[in-house]
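New to this. Please check both lines:
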Amino acid sequence: MKKGDIIGAGVIGGAISGIITSIFNHLTNIALESKSITLLIINILVGGSLVIGIAILINLILTRKKEK
């Protein structure tokens, strides 16, 4: 595994997690407008863990493919 492979995996993972973050930001704005605290808390918890999880998953998949 080369340094470039890790950087490439990070870039793709970052791009996808960025898209997910923007979706959850939009949902968070809706929650703030409707003044729903529970919806806001759920969004922060689910959104945060999803972004981190997907970024890690993509990194693992791409680095595994490069090793073969």
Remarks:
- DSSP finds two helices and no strands in the chain.
- The helical segments are 3-33, 37-67.
